[in-house]
Amino acid sequence: MSATTALVVGDSASQAVRSAIRAAKACVGAGKIDLLLIGKGANSGAASASKWNGVSTVYYAEGETPCTAESATPVIRERVSAKDYRYVIATANSFGKNVLPRLAGVLGVSALSDIIEVVESNVFVRPIYAGNALATVKSNDEVKVLTVRPTAFEPIEDSSEGLAEIVKVQIPADGVQSRWLGQEATENTRPDLTTADVVIAGGRGLKNKDNFKMLEEMADELGGAVGATRAAVDSGFVPNDMQVGQTGKVVAPQLYIGIGLSGAIQHLAGMKDSKTIVAINKDADAPIFQIADYGLVADLFEAVPELLQKIKEL
Ligand code: FAD
């Protein structure tokens, strides 16, 4: 068996992939970590990722489009066969959730999803029951295929010791049954919700789409992202990529401000690890106050404009 090595895979050189590198370090200790970026923009991503601390080689498979699970899997599999990696690790985002279960199936191993802690080289902690319990799981698979929560691992910093080697690899042209046709992406100038330091989240109490503008304004003042509850998404106030919770995104910002949301257990599953939680709700018995560090019992339509004004005066 070769020395313990890990291959981190992703579709861009993002903060979330830096977090996956940190998780890989926890797995391999002093072992080697390589990175593989796949899809459109992989080439320029590889150039920035080559500066990251702890990365030995950056492989990239440039594509004309973002990759699909079907096109990415053979590329990763070929690297695993060539280099005999003990771990394949991705962020638990849409790329990792899409690609790694397929890879695990192809390799004939179990995929371990949503890892939040590496206890030992083969023992991991992952949340279950919407984050209400933590399972400690052991994997005896020769190749461990993991997705990790970016919020649980500090992004790796840049290296002061030169650049990693960059190597181009090919995406196989044949044998892929599905093809990427297009996407409708939401334009967003704010930080990514899952890695933002500040998240302002709104719920059904906002009443309509227009009132979310107050939250957007507050997010812009604080350099943060805007999130929402499923009730707000289902009511059509905001698009569903802003949903935080069990069936939405998991966030753990330095500051989370929940406005006009009750704090249902499925919402808490996505934000309860935030460092400082502030809640504004007119109902003093709303469950969000049980986990809030600071709570304001007030009508949001009075409190939020006032708070916004105070923030602008800072
Ligand atoms: P509500 O529970 O209706 O709360 C609105 C709050 O606004 C109330 O507390 C009210 O007091 C307050 N309010 C109203 N007006 C004002 C005002 N003027 N000023 C101040 N406060 C005011 N939910 C998620 O968020 N994320 C998920 O990922 C998710 N996944 C789910 C998965 C499953 C399988 C299921 C069954 C549910 C899921 N839900 C999820 C839904 C969840 O159970 C709740 O229904 C939802 O979170 C409630 O959203 P809310 O807090 O905005 O609405």
From TrEMBL:
CDD domains: ETF_alpha
Cell location: Mitochondrion matrix
Signal peptide feature range: none
An MF annotation (GO) of this entry: electron transfer activity
Ranges of residues in domain Electron transfer flavoprotein alpha/beta-subunit N-terminal: 6-184
UniProt keyword list: Electron transport, FAD, Flavoprotein, Mitochondrion, Transport
Protein's UniProt keywords contain Ion transport: no
InterPro entries given in the database record: DHS-like_NAD/FAD-binding_dom, ETF_a/b_N, ETF_a/FixB, ETF_alpha_N, ETF_asu_C, Rossmann-like_a/b/a_fold
A Pfam family it matches: ETF
GO CC terms in record: mitochondrial matrix
Main localisation: mitochondrion
Cofactors required: FAD
Binding-site list for FAD: 204, 229-230, 243-247, 260-267, 281
GO biological process: fatty acid beta-oxidation using acyl-CoA dehydrogenase
Entry note: cofactor: Binds 1 FAD per dimer.
Function: The electron transfer flavoprotein serves as a specific electron acceptor for several dehydrogenases, including five acyl-CoA dehydrogenases, glutaryl-CoA and sarcosine dehydrogenase. It transfers the electrons to the main mitochondrial respiratory chain via ETF-ubiquinone oxidoreductase (ETF dehydrogenase).
PANTHER family given in the database record: ELECTRON TRANSFER FLAVOPROTEIN ALPHA, ELECTRON TRANSFER FLAVOPROTEIN SUBUNIT ALPHA, MITOCHONDRIAL
Subunit structure comment from the entry: Heterodimer of an alpha and a beta subunit.
Stated family: Belongs to the ETF alpha-subunit/FixB family.
Name of the featured protein: Electron transfer flavoprotein subunit alpha
Natural source organism: Gracilariopsis chorda
Source lineage: Eukaryota, Rhodophyta, Florideophyceae, Rhodymeniophycidae, Gracilariales
